[in-house]
Amino acid sequence: MYSLVKPFVKIITYLNNSSTLIASAGKSTITPKLVDSIISEMNLEDVNKWLKELIRKGHSSPFEHSLYVFEVTCSRVASHQIVRHRIASYTQLSQRYSDKYLRKLVYKISDVMNIDLKNRGNKNNYEEYVRILSKFMNEELSFNKLLYVVSEAFIIPPLIISTKDIVFLKNLLNSVYNYYLLLSRGLSYEDARYILPQCVKTRLLITMNARELYENFLPLRMCSRAQWEIRYIAWIIWRHLVNIQPELFSYTGPRCVNIDLKVSNKTCCLNEYLNRDCRFTIERCPESIVNENIVNCIKNASRDPWSGEYLYIISRVSF
Predict the structure, then answer these.
(1) Which E.C. number(s) belong to this protein (predicted)?
(2) Three-class DSSP category at 173
């Protein structure tokens, strides 16, 4: 059930040789050789050496020679935060033209109640949706049954689940009922949507380069100060990136990590800090967490707010 109540992140595509290209771009600033010649001479050891050097010196412009595309399903609350990161490209599911997630909620209710939903393929079947929603809402509903249905269309805050706040879920369901009631009375999508809560699901296609990920998105959003939903999204994106390009993204994390890497004598992976194989040298992080508490702060920030799993723990990848 947790897979439905929380955001979903998928990596669609990426520039496969980003690490080599970034390292070569860095080296091209100090050699007269052409870039294609530098690339052809680069081995894995050279790539790792140059990436570490660029990270340590904060020379981040070469990181722009990269591309990562993600598909993210999240709430409207989170999507509004994500699009504030300006050095990126976004395409979002239109709430004006699509009620995809809300219709899926109605379909799930019809399945749960064994109701034959007539003309399921007709997305303008609003009166039938209202009838089904009304019948379901008049039943004696348990929290789990309601959660099972409502999570089809909404991101559910972890606190609502842990406290079993059935009133919250009923209000979400009621908003869907009123939404389709308005549509059945002739109101347009673009007007009826104003009644929907901000936790309604949406879908984003996001394109970022490594510099935006390294310097802005991940440092800000993996931090314990970030809001829980976008923090979860950031940690999942980080896990995807470490799996595909560990030589590049193992070294990034919350802002405290990026800052420490620029002043430390050793270039350390995030997990080396968290396993205490490396020690932070900064006295305190930008959020005023003192040195000795930074590791625990990051670990707590990495916790899945729904399951409690520590997201920084991933299979060790060699590079």
Answers:
(1) 2.1.1.148
(2) helix
Strands (E), the chain: 8-14, 68-75, 88-92, 201-208
According to the annotation, is 59 in a ligand binding site?
Answer: no
Check pLDDT > 90 for residue 269.
yes
Q: How far apart are CA 211 and CA 217, in angstroms?
A: 9
Q: Which of 221, 231, 239, 255 is catalytic?
A: 221
Active site (annotated) includes residue 221: yes
User: Is residue 139 pLDDT above 70, yes or no?
Assistant: yes
Q: Which residues contact 98 (CB under 8 A, 6 or more apart)?
A: none
What is the mean predicted confidence (pLDDT) over 271-296? Answer: 96
Q: Is 60 annotated as a binding residue?
A: no
Q: What is the pTM for the complete model shown?
A: 0.94
- Measured CA to CA, the distance from residue 178 to residue 69 in angstroms comes to 36
Q: Is 216 annotated as a binding residue?
A: yes
The CATH class given to the 2-92+203-301 domain equals alpha beta
Domain boundaries, the chain: 2-92+203-301, 100-199
